[in-house]
Amino acid sequence: MRKIIFVLFVIMALSGIAFSGNFLVIAKAEKSPSFETATVKKKDIGSSILATGTVRPVIGAEVKVGARISGKVEHLYANIGDRVEKGQVIAEIEKKDLEAQVAQAEANVRAADAGVGVSKASFWPALSAQTDYGVKGTTYFPSQGDNFAGLKVTMPLFNGQDLYTIKQSKAVKEATKAALEFSKIQLSYATIKAPISGVIASVTTQEGETVAAGLSAPTFVTIIDLSRLQVDAFVDETDIGRVKVGQKAIFTVDTYPDKEFTGKVKAIYPKAIIQENVVNFDVVIEIDGSNEELLRPDMTTSVTIYQEERGGVLVIPRSAVIREGAGKFVLVKQDNGSFGKREVKTGMTSGSDIEVVSGLDEGDIVGIRQE
Prior knowledge:
The protein is of the alpha+beta class. It has four helices and 24 strands. The strands form five sheets. The protein has a six-stranded antiparallel beta barrel with strand order 2-13-17-15-14-18. Strands 1, 19, 20, 21 and 24 form a five-stranded antiparallel beta sheet that branches. The radius of gyration is 44 Å and the shape is elongated.
Protein backbone atom coordinates (compact mmCIF):
# COMPACT_ATOMS: atom_id res chain seq x y z
CA MET A 1 0.00 0.00 0.00
CA ARG A 2 2.86 2.34 0.85
CA LYS A 3 4.48 1.62 -2.49
CA ILE A 4 1.30 2.48 -4.33
CA ILE A 5 0.98 5.79 -2.47
CA PHE A 6 4.62 6.60 -3.20
CA VAL A 7 4.19 5.86 -6.91
CA LEU A 8 1.10 8.06 -7.07
CA PHE A 9 2.96 10.90 -5.32
CA VAL A 10 5.85 10.68 -7.80
CA ILE A 11 3.45 10.74 -10.75
CA MET A 12 1.64 13.82 -9.40
CA ALA A 13 4.93 15.60 -8.78
CA LEU A 14 6.13 14.92 -12.30
CA SER A 15 2.81 16.09 -13.72
CA GLY A 16 3.06 19.34 -11.72
CA ILE A 17 6.56 20.00 -13.00
CA ALA A 18 5.45 19.39 -16.60
CA PHE A 19 2.45 21.71 -16.15
CA SER A 20 4.62 24.42 -14.62
CA GLY A 21 7.04 24.14 -17.52
CA ASN A 22 4.25 24.48 -20.06
CA PHE A 23 2.81 27.49 -18.19
CA LEU A 24 6.17 29.25 -18.21
CA VAL A 25 6.56 28.57 -21.91
CA ILE A 26 3.08 29.95 -22.62
CA ALA A 27 3.67 32.99 -20.41
CA LYS A 28 7.01 33.63 -22.10
CA ALA A 29 5.37 33.30 -25.48
CA GLU A 30 2.67 35.77 -24.49
CA LYS A 31 5.31 38.28 -23.36
CA SER A 32 7.37 37.94 -26.52
CA PRO A 33 6.79 40.89 -28.87
CA SER A 34 4.51 40.52 -31.87
CA PHE A 35 4.10 42.89 -34.81
CA GLU A 36 1.42 44.38 -36.96
CA THR A 37 2.71 45.61 -40.26
CA ALA A 38 2.03 48.62 -42.47
CA THR A 39 3.30 49.46 -45.95
CA VAL A 40 5.00 52.77 -46.68
CA LYS A 41 2.85 54.51 -49.28
CA LYS A 42 2.31 57.88 -50.91
CA LYS A 43 -0.65 59.93 -49.87
CA ASP A 44 -2.06 63.46 -49.84
CA ILE A 45 -2.11 64.73 -46.27
CA GLY A 46 -2.83 67.95 -44.47
CA SER A 47 -2.26 69.35 -41.02
CA SER A 48 -5.61 70.28 -39.53
CA ILE A 49 -7.40 71.36 -36.37
CA LEU A 50 -10.74 69.94 -35.30
CA ALA A 51 -13.30 72.10 -33.49
CA THR A 52 -17.00 72.37 -32.80
CA GLY A 53 -18.98 75.44 -33.69
CA THR A 54 -22.34 77.07 -34.30
CA VAL A 55 -23.95 78.71 -37.33
CA ARG A 56 -24.58 82.41 -36.64
CA PRO A 57 -25.80 85.41 -38.68
CA VAL A 58 -22.99 87.77 -39.63
CA ILE A 59 -22.96 91.18 -37.97
CA GLY A 60 -25.83 93.17 -39.44
CA ALA A 61 -27.68 90.15 -40.84
CA GLU A 62 -30.03 89.90 -37.82
CA VAL A 63 -32.02 93.03 -37.05
CA LYS A 64 -34.64 93.68 -34.40
CA VAL A 65 -37.14 96.12 -35.87
CA GLY A 66 -38.86 98.42 -33.38
CA ALA A 67 -40.86 101.64 -33.08
CA ARG A 68 -39.51 105.11 -32.32
CA ILE A 69 -42.89 106.51 -31.27
CA SER A 70 -45.66 105.39 -28.96
CA GLY A 71 -49.12 104.43 -30.08
CA LYS A 72 -51.51 101.63 -30.99
CA VAL A 73 -50.42 99.10 -33.63
CA GLU A 74 -53.06 99.65 -36.30
CA HIS A 75 -51.77 97.15 -38.87
CA LEU A 76 -49.19 94.33 -38.71
CA TYR A 77 -48.21 92.83 -42.04
CA ALA A 78 -45.60 90.28 -40.91
CA ASN A 79 -45.81 86.62 -39.89
CA ILE A 80 -43.06 84.21 -38.87
CA GLY A 81 -41.35 82.73 -41.90
CA ASP A 82 -42.46 85.46 -44.31
CA ARG A 83 -39.92 86.74 -46.80
CA VAL A 84 -39.59 90.55 -46.75
CA GLU A 85 -37.59 92.96 -48.88
CA LYS A 86 -35.73 96.04 -47.76
CA GLY A 87 -38.16 98.99 -47.52
CA GLN A 88 -41.27 96.80 -47.32
CA VAL A 89 -43.92 98.01 -44.85
CA ILE A 90 -44.08 95.71 -41.83
CA ALA A 91 -46.44 97.58 -39.51
CA GLU A 92 -48.30 100.85 -39.08
CA ILE A 93 -48.98 102.76 -35.87
CA GLU A 94 -52.14 104.83 -35.51
CA LYS A 95 -51.23 108.26 -36.94
CA LYS A 96 -54.27 110.53 -37.06
CA ASP A 97 -52.80 112.76 -34.37
CA LEU A 98 -49.50 112.96 -36.25
CA GLU A 99 -51.26 113.88 -39.49
CA ALA A 100 -53.10 116.65 -37.60
CA GLN A 101 -49.78 117.98 -36.31
CA VAL A 102 -48.41 118.10 -39.86
CA ALA A 103 -51.48 120.01 -41.04
CA GLN A 104 -51.11 122.47 -38.15
CA ALA A 105 -47.42 122.98 -38.93
CA GLU A 106 -48.20 123.67 -42.59
CA ALA A 107 -50.76 126.30 -41.54
CA ASN A 108 -48.16 127.92 -39.25
CA VAL A 109 -45.74 128.17 -42.16
CA ARG A 110 -48.34 129.91 -44.28
CA ALA A 111 -49.14 132.32 -41.44
CA ALA A 112 -45.46 133.09 -40.91
CA ASP A 113 -44.99 133.72 -44.62
CA ALA A 114 -47.85 136.18 -44.51
CA GLY A 115 -46.26 137.84 -41.49
CA VAL A 116 -43.10 138.51 -43.49
CA GLY A 117 -45.19 140.22 -46.16
CA VAL A 118 -46.92 142.40 -43.59
CA SER A 119 -43.57 143.46 -42.11
CA LYS A 120 -42.28 144.49 -45.53
CA ALA A 121 -45.48 146.33 -46.36
CA SER A 122 -45.12 148.41 -43.19
CA PHE A 123 -42.25 150.24 -44.93
CA TRP A 124 -42.85 152.01 -48.12
CA PRO A 125 -45.40 150.07 -50.19
CA ALA A 126 -43.76 151.11 -53.45
CA LEU A 127 -40.47 149.48 -52.45
CA SER A 128 -41.62 146.49 -50.43
CA ALA A 129 -42.39 144.40 -53.48
CA GLN A 130 -38.98 144.95 -55.08
CA THR A 131 -36.46 144.98 -52.24
CA ASP A 132 -35.43 142.49 -49.58
CA TYR A 133 -34.73 144.53 -46.51
CA GLY A 134 -32.76 143.23 -43.59
CA VAL A 135 -31.06 140.32 -45.34
CA LYS A 136 -27.60 141.24 -44.07
CA GLY A 137 -28.87 142.55 -40.78
CA THR A 138 -27.60 146.11 -41.28
CA THR A 139 -29.43 149.39 -40.87
CA TYR A 140 -29.36 151.53 -43.97
CA PHE A 141 -30.26 155.18 -44.20
CA PRO A 142 -30.31 156.28 -47.84
CA SER A 143 -29.23 159.78 -48.63
CA GLN A 144 -31.15 162.34 -50.61
CA GLY A 145 -31.11 161.61 -54.35
CA ASP A 146 -30.62 157.77 -54.06
CA ASN A 147 -32.69 155.73 -56.49
CA PHE A 148 -34.73 152.63 -55.42
CA ALA A 149 -36.72 150.77 -58.06
CA GLY A 150 -36.47 153.80 -60.30
CA LEU A 151 -37.93 156.13 -57.65
CA LYS A 152 -36.21 159.27 -56.53
CA VAL A 153 -35.73 159.34 -52.75
CA THR A 154 -36.52 162.67 -51.21
CA MET A 155 -36.71 161.54 -47.56
CA PRO A 156 -35.32 158.74 -45.31
CA LEU A 157 -37.11 155.49 -46.13
CA PHE A 158 -36.92 153.58 -42.82
CA ASN A 159 -35.11 153.23 -39.52
CA GLY A 160 -33.36 150.35 -37.66
CA GLN A 161 -36.47 149.19 -35.81
CA ASP A 162 -38.25 148.50 -39.08
CA LEU A 163 -35.34 146.30 -40.26
CA TYR A 164 -35.39 144.13 -37.13
CA THR A 165 -39.14 143.70 -37.43
CA ILE A 166 -38.61 142.13 -40.83
CA LYS A 167 -35.76 139.94 -39.53
CA GLN A 168 -37.96 138.74 -36.69
CA SER A 169 -40.79 137.77 -39.03
CA LYS A 170 -38.34 135.87 -41.25
CA ALA A 171 -36.95 133.99 -38.25
CA VAL A 172 -40.49 133.01 -37.23
CA LYS A 173 -41.06 131.67 -40.73
CA GLU A 174 -37.85 129.57 -40.58
CA ALA A 175 -38.89 128.18 -37.17
CA THR A 176 -42.31 127.15 -38.46
CA LYS A 177 -40.69 125.43 -41.47
CA ALA A 178 -38.40 123.48 -39.13
CA ALA A 179 -41.41 122.49 -37.01
CA LEU A 180 -43.13 121.26 -40.17
CA GLU A 181 -40.14 119.08 -41.09
CA PHE A 182 -40.05 117.65 -37.56
CA SER A 183 -43.76 116.78 -37.63
CA LYS A 184 -43.31 115.07 -41.02
CA ILE A 185 -40.44 113.00 -39.62
CA GLN A 186 -42.56 111.98 -36.63
CA LEU A 187 -45.32 110.96 -39.02
CA SER A 188 -42.88 108.81 -40.99
CA TYR A 189 -42.02 106.89 -37.80
CA ALA A 190 -45.61 105.60 -37.72
CA THR A 191 -44.84 103.42 -40.75
CA ILE A 192 -42.42 100.61 -39.83
CA LYS A 193 -40.34 99.37 -42.79
CA ALA A 194 -37.89 96.50 -43.14
CA PRO A 195 -34.30 97.80 -42.89
CA ILE A 196 -32.90 94.67 -44.62
CA SER A 197 -34.13 91.86 -46.84
CA GLY A 198 -34.63 88.53 -45.11
CA VAL A 199 -37.00 86.21 -43.29
CA ILE A 200 -39.19 87.08 -40.30
CA ALA A 201 -37.69 85.05 -37.44
CA SER A 202 -39.95 86.24 -34.60
CA VAL A 203 -42.92 88.51 -33.97
CA THR A 204 -43.17 90.07 -30.51
CA THR A 205 -45.99 92.62 -30.99
CA GLN A 206 -49.55 91.95 -32.07
CA GLU A 207 -51.99 94.10 -33.99
CA GLY A 208 -54.08 96.24 -31.64
CA GLU A 209 -51.46 96.45 -28.89
CA THR A 210 -50.27 99.82 -27.64
CA VAL A 211 -46.51 100.27 -27.64
CA ALA A 212 -44.59 102.77 -25.56
CA ALA A 213 -41.29 104.03 -26.93
CA GLY A 214 -39.07 104.92 -23.99
CA LEU A 215 -35.37 104.44 -23.44
CA SER A 216 -35.48 101.28 -25.58
CA ALA A 217 -37.57 100.87 -28.69
CA PRO A 218 -40.23 98.14 -28.47
CA THR A 219 -39.41 95.29 -30.86
CA PHE A 220 -42.00 94.41 -33.48
CA VAL A 221 -40.22 91.67 -35.44
CA THR A 222 -36.76 90.15 -35.88
CA ILE A 223 -35.48 89.77 -39.45
CA ILE A 224 -32.63 87.43 -40.42
CA ASP A 225 -30.88 87.41 -43.79
CA LEU A 226 -30.23 83.69 -44.26
CA SER A 227 -27.86 84.35 -47.15
CA ARG A 228 -25.41 86.02 -44.75
CA LEU A 229 -24.38 83.36 -42.24
CA GLN A 230 -21.07 82.40 -40.66
CA VAL A 231 -19.70 79.70 -38.37
CA ASP A 232 -18.30 80.51 -34.94
CA ALA A 233 -15.80 77.69 -34.28
CA PHE A 234 -14.47 77.26 -30.75
CA VAL A 235 -10.76 76.34 -30.98
CA ASP A 236 -8.82 75.09 -27.96
CA GLU A 237 -6.07 77.34 -26.62
CA THR A 238 -3.45 74.69 -27.46
CA ASP A 239 -4.31 74.96 -31.18
CA ILE A 240 -5.19 78.64 -31.60
CA GLY A 241 -1.57 79.59 -32.35
CA ARG A 242 -1.72 77.60 -35.61
CA VAL A 243 -4.89 79.26 -36.88
CA LYS A 244 -4.43 82.12 -39.36
CA VAL A 245 -6.85 84.34 -41.26
CA GLY A 246 -7.45 82.99 -44.77
CA GLN A 247 -6.95 79.30 -43.96
CA LYS A 248 -9.33 76.84 -45.64
CA ALA A 249 -12.05 75.22 -43.52
CA ILE A 250 -14.76 72.63 -44.04
CA PHE A 251 -17.66 71.82 -41.76
CA THR A 252 -20.69 69.59 -41.48
CA VAL A 253 -23.99 69.93 -39.65
CA ASP A 254 -25.91 67.16 -37.94
CA THR A 255 -28.90 67.39 -40.25
CA TYR A 256 -26.70 66.88 -43.38
CA PRO A 257 -23.89 64.57 -42.14
CA ASP A 258 -22.87 63.56 -45.68
CA LYS A 259 -22.60 67.10 -47.06
CA GLU A 260 -19.47 69.21 -46.56
CA PHE A 261 -19.66 73.00 -46.56
CA THR A 262 -16.55 75.02 -47.34
CA GLY A 263 -15.26 78.34 -46.07
CA LYS A 264 -12.21 80.17 -44.81
CA VAL A 265 -11.06 81.77 -41.58
CA LYS A 266 -12.23 85.39 -41.57
CA ALA A 267 -11.39 86.58 -38.04
CA ILE A 268 -10.08 85.39 -34.68
CA TYR A 269 -11.54 86.93 -31.54
CA PRO A 270 -8.72 88.19 -29.27
CA LYS A 271 -10.62 87.46 -26.05
CA ALA A 272 -11.05 83.86 -24.91
CA ILE A 273 -14.29 82.14 -23.95
CA ILE A 274 -13.92 80.26 -20.65
CA GLN A 275 -16.48 77.60 -19.77
CA GLU A 276 -15.93 75.10 -16.94
CA ASN A 277 -12.23 76.03 -16.83
CA VAL A 278 -11.82 75.19 -20.53
CA VAL A 279 -10.29 78.01 -22.59
CA ASN A 280 -11.46 78.36 -26.20
CA PHE A 281 -11.14 81.10 -28.79
CA ASP A 282 -13.90 82.08 -31.21
CA VAL A 283 -12.73 81.65 -34.82
CA VAL A 284 -15.10 83.12 -37.43
CA ILE A 285 -15.49 80.99 -40.58
CA GLU A 286 -16.81 82.78 -43.67
CA ILE A 287 -19.05 80.37 -45.61
CA ASP A 288 -18.45 80.02 -49.36
CA GLY A 289 -21.48 80.53 -51.57
CA SER A 290 -25.10 80.83 -50.53
CA ASN A 291 -26.63 77.99 -48.52
CA GLU A 292 -29.85 79.78 -47.70
CA GLU A 293 -31.99 76.69 -48.25
CA LEU A 294 -29.84 74.41 -46.05
CA LEU A 295 -28.28 76.26 -43.12
CA ARG A 296 -30.09 77.87 -40.19
CA PRO A 297 -28.82 79.90 -37.24
CA ASP A 298 -27.77 77.94 -34.12
CA MET A 299 -27.05 74.70 -36.02
CA THR A 300 -24.18 72.73 -34.43
CA THR A 301 -21.17 72.20 -36.69
CA SER A 302 -18.07 69.98 -36.77
CA VAL A 303 -15.26 72.10 -38.20
CA THR A 304 -11.89 71.17 -39.71
CA ILE A 305 -9.40 74.00 -40.25
CA TYR A 306 -6.48 73.18 -42.58
CA GLN A 307 -3.07 74.69 -41.85
CA GLU A 308 -1.09 73.07 -44.69
CA GLU A 309 -1.66 70.48 -47.41
CA ARG A 310 0.94 68.29 -49.14
CA GLY A 311 0.39 65.89 -51.99
CA GLY A 312 2.13 62.61 -52.79
CA VAL A 313 4.28 62.30 -49.67
CA LEU A 314 5.42 59.04 -48.01
CA VAL A 315 3.39 58.23 -44.90
CA ILE A 316 3.31 55.56 -42.20
CA PRO A 317 1.19 55.14 -39.08
CA ARG A 318 2.33 57.40 -36.24
CA SER A 319 2.37 54.38 -33.91
CA ALA A 320 5.18 52.83 -36.00
CA VAL A 321 7.65 55.54 -34.96
CA ILE A 322 9.90 54.71 -31.97
CA ARG A 323 11.53 57.58 -30.09
CA GLU A 324 14.89 56.98 -28.47
CA GLY A 325 16.45 60.10 -27.09
CA ALA A 326 16.63 62.73 -29.82
CA GLY A 327 16.28 60.17 -32.62
CA LYS A 328 13.35 58.48 -34.31
CA PHE A 329 13.40 54.89 -35.54
CA VAL A 330 11.13 52.36 -37.19
CA LEU A 331 11.31 48.56 -37.41
CA VAL A 332 11.69 47.58 -41.08
CA LYS A 333 11.00 44.05 -42.30
CA GLN A 334 14.11 42.39 -43.77
CA ASP A 335 14.35 39.86 -46.62
CA ASN A 336 14.64 37.00 -44.11
CA GLY A 337 11.40 38.04 -42.39
CA SER A 338 13.00 39.58 -39.34
CA PHE A 339 12.67 43.23 -38.35
CA GLY A 340 15.60 45.64 -38.11
CA LYS A 341 15.82 49.11 -36.65
CA ARG A 342 16.25 52.04 -39.05
CA GLU A 343 16.54 55.75 -38.32
CA VAL A 344 14.01 58.03 -40.05
CA LYS A 345 13.22 61.72 -40.31
CA THR A 346 9.56 62.67 -40.06
CA GLY A 347 7.54 65.72 -41.08
CA MET A 348 3.87 66.68 -40.93
CA THR A 349 1.35 64.69 -38.97
CA SER A 350 -2.23 64.26 -40.13
CA GLY A 351 -4.60 62.27 -37.97
CA SER A 352 -3.07 58.80 -37.44
CA ASP A 353 -0.51 59.30 -40.26
CA ILE A 354 2.93 60.88 -40.21
CA GLU A 355 5.06 62.02 -43.15
CA VAL A 356 8.42 60.29 -43.72
CA VAL A 357 10.97 62.76 -45.05
CA SER A 358 13.90 60.32 -45.26
CA GLY A 359 14.93 56.78 -44.25
CA LEU A 360 12.23 54.77 -46.03
CA ASP A 361 11.12 54.01 -49.56
CA GLU A 362 7.67 53.44 -50.98
CA GLY A 363 6.71 49.78 -50.51
CA ASP A 364 8.84 49.17 -47.42
CA ILE A 365 7.07 47.24 -44.66
CA VAL A 366 7.34 48.58 -41.14
CA GLY A 367 6.35 46.85 -37.96
CA ILE A 368 4.16 48.21 -35.22
CA ARG A 369 5.12 46.49 -31.98
CA GLN A 370 2.23 45.14 -29.93
CA GLU A 371 3.16 44.33 -26.31
